Amino acid sequence: MIHSLSFPNSAIIRAPEWLVLKGGRGQILDIPVRYGVFEHGAAGTCLIDTGYNHRVTTGPRSFALRIYAALLRPRLTMATLPDAQPDARTIILTHLHADHVAALRDYPDARIIADKTALEHYLAAGPIRLRHGVFAELLPPDALDRIADINACPERPAPLGLGPARDLFGDGSVLAVPLPGHMRGHVGLCFTQFETPLLYAADAQWLHQAVMEDRQPGGPAALILDDADLARSTARRIRQFSEQGGAVIYCHDPDILPEYGSATG
């Protein structure tokens, strides 16, 4: 059973609408950088990613991480940073970008659920992948040893046409759904026990409007994509899920529900 699912904001990044929406205007958007928090009956307090924290914005950092921070200029939202969740026992990583793992070292005893193959790939490629926003310095040194591999979880079909998924807790309440294209190993999380199935689509797209109107951004925003064709295919699956009645939340969409409540069944 899932309780008290919410998506606090760890930081704000300011960017023009045209950067995240094809044909968008020049108006500046305040783009959130969210992470998730929920209570699971057996797993306790769980985080979905960790958002940004001070390891990206201040203090000793590699030159590459300084460049990254200077380009994006995230403004931390101090009251809701992920280190305000000290009791977290489980952290589910949707992917390995800096804005999803920055606070991971603050939880040395937490169980980490992630795509182990993706982590092995990026660690083997070197400590820094600036284009892909991957920085080994943000990861715990024992990350590989602590990871429970998503792909080792039982397979179960996700609702409303999302396709095969992985049952993270063995009770069908949280399914990890592969959403390829944005980054190697990128997954969303489907919460099946709500009256309306909910997909947390993470970074499959910045704005739900872009998915529903087939207005995925190109240019600079597309440079970080692992595979643009797969990203478009993922967007079609999300659109189908939404059109069949599913609810969708994204990490960076300003129009996001801060609280989703508890499961009903």
Overview of this structure, please?
- There is one protein chain.
- This protein has 265 residues and is of the alpha+beta class.
- It is built from 8 helices and 18 strands.
- The strands form 4 sheets. It has a 7-stranded mixed beta sheet with strand order 11-8-7-5-4-1-18. Strands 12-13-14-15-16-17 form a 6-stranded mixed beta sheet, with helices on one face.
- A hairpin with an 8-residue loop joins β14 and β15.
- It is globular.
What's the short story on this structure?
By secondary structure, this protein is an alpha+beta fold. Helices cover 21% and strands 28% of the residues.
Structural class: alpha+beta
In whole angstroms, how far apart are the ends?
Answer: 8 Å
Number of DSSP strand runs: 18
Query: Count of helical segments?
Result: 8
| Uncertain ranges | none
Q: Name the helix and strand elements from N-terminus to C-terminus, one letter apiece.
A: EEHEEEHHEEHEHEEHEEEEEEHHEE
Helicity, as a percent range: 10-25%
Mean pLDDT: 89
Inertia-based shape = globular
State Rg: 17 Å
- The strand line-up of the biggest sheet is 11-8-7-5-4-1-18
State which percent range the strand residues make up.
Answer: 25-35%
Q: Describe the sheet with the most strands.
A: 7 strands, mixed
Give the helices and strands, then pairings:
Blueprint: E1 2-6, E2 9-16, H1 17-20, E3 28-34, E4 36-40, E5 44-48, H2 54-57, H3 63-72, E6 75-76, E7 90-92, H4 98-101, E8 111-114, H5 116-124, E9 128-129, E10 134-135, H6 143-146, E11 147-149, E12 155-158, E13 163-167, E14 174-178, E15 187-191, E16 198-200, H7 208-212, H8 228-243, E17 247-249, E18 259-261
Parallel strand pairs: 5-7, 7-8, 8-11, 16-17
Antiparallel strand pairs: 1-4, 1-18, 2-3, 2-6, 4-5, 9-10, 12-13, 13-14, 14-15, 15-16
